Amino acid sequence: MNAPRPRSAWKRFCRISPDWVFGAMLVLVPLVIARDWLWPASDGDGSDPRTLALLFAITLGCGIVAAIASRFDRRMIEDFHYRLMANGAIVGIVAMMTVVIVFDVLVGDVDALTGKDIILVLTTGWAIGYFYHRLRGLDA
Amino acid sequence: MNNRLRVLRAERAWSQQELADRLDVSRQSVNAIETGKYDPSLPLAFRIADVFGLAIEEIFLRD
């Protein structure tokens, strides 16, 4: 039996499990979105609770449907292309978050970005990520 | 991870498309494995081993 491989310095010092990161995202992001509803501002200028409830319901429903659909994709599409798509999706999400931050820093008005702009950035980032890994390899 | 896929395919005079057909994958997948751009999943590695009649460790080698 082989001796256990020594853990890399990164793995040794980075104790944050992805479960904690994604668990925090699952709890904190909806709380931030719903803050106006949970803690109404004194001027009453907050998001409509019904709109927030609808947003949560659609997100929950679409998330579950997308998870089931991805399982179908994984079975139907060959592994290489599925992994290209998955890696590309990670690039798209990170690119989208980065673009929003950079846009906010440069322009100072993140509210100027519309939902369509966000989808455009996400889709373009996904395609860039797909072709980057397609050309450079999945380990690149 | 390195592999001997190109050599084994050449020994049998198979094209990438022929091997892809035998493995039921696309030619792009075979090319990506041969060029080291993609390490196949375990089920696909077993299929490759079956097609060549070899053990997985005779095809895929550690870096």
TrEMBL record, chain A:
Report which superkingdom the organism of origin falls in. Answer: Bacteria
Does the keyword section mention Membrane? yes
Answer whether the UniProt record assigns the keyword Transmembrane helix to this protein. Answer: yes
**Keyword annotations from UniProtKB, A to Z:** Membrane, Transmembrane, Transmembrane helix
Give the stretches traversing the membrane: 20-39, 51-72, 84-106, 118-135
Q: What is this protein called?
A: Uncharacterized protein
| Species annotation | Novosphingobium marinum
TrEMBL record, chain B:
The record's GO molecular-function terms, alphabetically, read: DNA binding
Q: Which UniProt keywords are given for this protein, alphabetically ordered?
A: DNA-binding
Q: What is one Pfam family matched by this protein? A: HTH_3
Q: Which InterPro entries does this UniProt record tie to the protein?
A: Cro/C1-type_HTH, Lambda_DNA-bd_dom_sf
Please list the residue ranges annotated as the HTH cro/C1-type domain: 5-59
Among SMART domains, the record links this protein to: HTH_XRE
Q: Does the keyword DNA-binding apply?
A: yes
Question: Which CDD domains does the record cross-reference, listed alphabetically?
Answer: HTH_XRE
> Which SUPFAM superfamilies did the record assign?
lambda repressor-like DNA-binding domains
Task: Give the protein's recorded name.
Answer: Putative transcriptional regulator
Organism of origin: Novosphingobium marinum
